[in-house]
Amino acid sequence: xxxxxxxxxxxxxxxxxxxxxxxxxxxxxxxxxxxxxxxxxxxxxxxxxxxxxxxxxxxxxxxxxxxxxxxxxxxxxxxxxxxxxxxxxxxxxxxxxxxxxxxxxxxxxxxxxxxxxxxxxxxxxxxxxxxxxxxxxxxxxxxxxxxxxxxxxxxxxxxxxxxxxxxxxxxxxxxxxxxxxxxxxxxxxxxxxxxxxxxxxxxxxxxxxxxxxxxxxxxxxxxxxxxxxxxxxxxxxxxxxxxxxxxxxxxxxxxxxxxxxxxxxxxxxxxxxxxxxxx
Length: 279
What we know:
Layout: E1 2-10, H1 20-27, H2 31-55, E2 61-64, H3 74-92, E3 99-100, E4 104-105, H4 118-125, E5 130-131, H5 134-137, E6 141-149, H6 153-164, E7 171-179, H7 188-193, H8 200-208, H9 216-223, H10 227-235, H11 239-251, H12 261-276
Parallel strand pairs: 1-7, 2-3, 2-6, 6-7
Antiparallel strand pairs: 4-5
């Protein structure tokens, strides 16, 4: 049994029910926005489905964020704050707090998913394979969590994974927002993603707020940026940040992608220099 819930339903390309600038900052790693969105999603979900959850008594909930390989997606930060708020509600009623697990994905790609048409999204994600621990989920209620539903491509892959693994547990498909007007093209997602972030120096602004969490989108954006601007950006970052960025990029296999080679080599040279001189 599956149930779908979206806090915001997008049926107007000019009015979203949330601040598109906040959404853009969230997608590029602003944890302040992630906190607000995650809490709002939890509160909306509790209003809509809290009675059903309470009726399950001691049934265990498991929260599953959107699939990722090594670097978390933006939705991972939203998930954290969703769980924090949900657990307060659960604990306050003597119910078991939520557990978590991960969907592993096998492919990482350089394309910007938000800029693709519905057909291009299907072709791209159709190459991917998702894996999850079926035994861990057995007998529990699953909350699959994502930030936005545009064409339903990721959702279809999740549903296929559930069927392929023979998962019989009841589950919810939760979204901060969902596109419900078919006349609005899928590229509205790209409009939202870049509503506030216009250049790599906006990422620098986010980093300097002290409320920044590196995610897949931010890493790909930085590594694929024009080298001259990237170099100015990189030279303004701490050695600690550059080393972290480099290690995260390696974890996702980005060192094997030509599109990221020049910027990543610059970071590598910096990291190697730090190692050589013991910084």
